[in-house]
Write a structure and sequence with these properties.
The protein is 44% helix and 18% strand. By secondary structure, the protein is α+β, with helices and mostly antiparallel strands. The strands form four sheets. Strands 1, 2, 3, 4, 5, 6, 7 and 8 form an eight-stranded mixed beta sheet that branches. β5 and β6 form a beta hairpin. The chain is globular and about 90 Å long.
Amino acid sequence: MVGDPAAVVFTRKQQGAFERLYDWLNSVAARNGDARPGPVVASSDATIVTRAKSVDVDDVEVVGESYYRQAFADLFIRAGKPLGGVTWYQAVLVAEPDNPHDENAVAVSVDGHKVGHIPADLAPTIQRDVRAANRRGEQVCVAARIWAACDDATWSARVTLDPTEEPEPEWRYVDEPHWPGRISPDGAERLTDSGSLRQYERYRAALIVHGRAVDDYRPDVAQARADGDPARALAILGECIDAAERAAAIVFAKPDQWPTEQAATIYRGLKDYDAEVAVLERYFAASPDHAGTKGLRTRLTRARELAGKESGTAPASVEESVAASETVVTLAGPRPVIDVALPFAAELSYEIEHIDAIKSVVDEAGGSVGAALYASAFLRERHHRPHGFGYVDVYINRKLVGSVAAIEADAVREIVRRDEYTGHDCCVRCRVFLASIERKSARITLGRYEDVVEREDETESAARTRQQAVELEAMRMERLAAGGQEAADQRRRLVRDKDYIEWVETIKDLKREKRYADALQLALECVDAAERDAVFHQCAPPPAYTEHAAMLYRKLGNANGEVRILERYERACPDDQGSSSIAERLVKARARL
C-alpha cells in the first residue's frame, strides 16, 4: 500500500478506533445507498456478497419497526403499494458499536432506510460476524420479507430476515375491491382492515329486506305457516333468498341457508317437487364451491326422485356435489407418498358426512364398532383460489373420511404446503374410533392422538368439552381471587358455585338420560343468572339456556310453560336486541296451544 494516496495507516493501539471508524463509514454508505465498503480498503480488493455464510439470520424477526414508520411509507409508496402489503428487498446488516442504547446493536437497512434492529439476544454474535465480514471488504446482505399496512394514516410493519418458508408472492393492500371476498382471484391484492369493514357493511346492507335483516323474518315465516298461508311464507322466503345471495356474492361465501331450507320444506309439503328441486339447485349454483351441507345434498337427491327427474338438470359442479353424498369419495391422481410426523394432535370434522367410508375402513382392517383402530392417513389440500385456503381432506385406504377441523387447519395446512412436500401426499399416523353407525358417530384424530384421548370411547366433542371445562374453571377461580368488581361480576354469574356457562354440558347429559325435570331446574337457574348478568351489563341474555328450558317444557308436555319462558326472554331483552330464533320458536309454541 506504499505510495497509495488513499491508504490510511493505523498503529496497533489505534485498532479499536479504526474498527469503529470503518463501521461508521459503512453505516453511512448503507444509509446513502452506496454499496462500496469504504475508503480504508483498496477498491480493487473490495467484494460485496449477497450473504455471508458465517452470519446466521434465518427467520430472524427484526425489532423496533415502529420507530421507523416513515421509512416503510417511503419504501411502499415507491413500490406502488401506498397502503402496504408484502414486498421483498435485500437488507443490509450494519454494525452499530457506538449505539448509545446497546454497543452490540446491529441495524437493518433497506434501500438506504433504517427499518429496525436485530433482537438484542442475537446482536452480539451477529455484530461480531458482520464486523468480521466488513473487515474482509464484504457487506452482509440478506433477503427480507416486509409486511406493512397503513391504517388511519399510521404505518405498522414486520420485517423477517431470510425466511426459510416458501417465498410468498408480493401483494398489495387496497381499500376498494373489484372482486368478491377479501383476496383478489390472482392473489395480488387484499383488502385493508378499513376496506374489509366497508365490505362487511355492504354485506350487512345487502341482507336488509324492507328495513329488516333477513334473519329477523324467521318468526314471520313461522307465523305464515302456522296460519296455513304457504303462499305468504314463500313470498317472504323468496325475498330473503334474493338478499342472501346478494350478500354472499359480496364476500365470496355460501348464502344464508335457512330461507332455502324453509322454502324446500314448504314445497315438499305442497308436493311441488319441481319447485323444491329448483330452489335447492339455485342454492348450490349460488355457492362458490357449489356444495352445501350433506343434508341439502340428500334433500336434493330425494326431491329429484319424487319429481321423477334424472341427474343432469343442474350444472356439472352441482351434480358432482350431489354425487359426493351418494358414494364413497376416493383419492384421485396418486402421488408419491412422504411420511410426516405431526408435532400435535389434530381432530377431524365432517366425519358424519363420510360415515360409510369410515365403516368401510374399519371393516377392511378387521376392526369393529366401539374399538379404536390405528392406521395411516393421507392429507391433501382441496382445490382453492390462488393464495387462498382450501380444506385439508383426510383419506384412509384412499377413502375420504373427513377434513381437518378449523381449529387445527392452519397449522396442518402450513405443514402440507412445505417445499419438500410439494407434489406429495403427506402420510400421518391416525386413530379412528367408530362409536355408532346408527347415530353416525365417529372420531378421527391425527398425529399425537395420545395427548387428547383420555379414554377409548371419548368423542371429539367430549374431549374439547373436557379441555374447555378446565379452562372455564381456571378463569372462574382467577376472577374470584382478583377481588373487587371482577369478583363481584363473577359471583353474579354463579349457579351452584359454578359459572352458569359451565353447566351447558351437564344440562345436555341430563336430557340424554331423560332426567327432564332435573335438567329443567338447572336450566332455569342458569336463565336466572344469565338475566342477572344481562341486566347489569344492559344487554340481551344469551338465548341458549332459554331454548334448553323451552325444549324441556315441551318434553314434559307443558306447552304453557314453554310459551312463558320464551315470553320471559323477550321481556328481558332491551329493544332491538332480541333473538330471531327465540321469536320463531315462540310463534310455533303459541300455535301449539
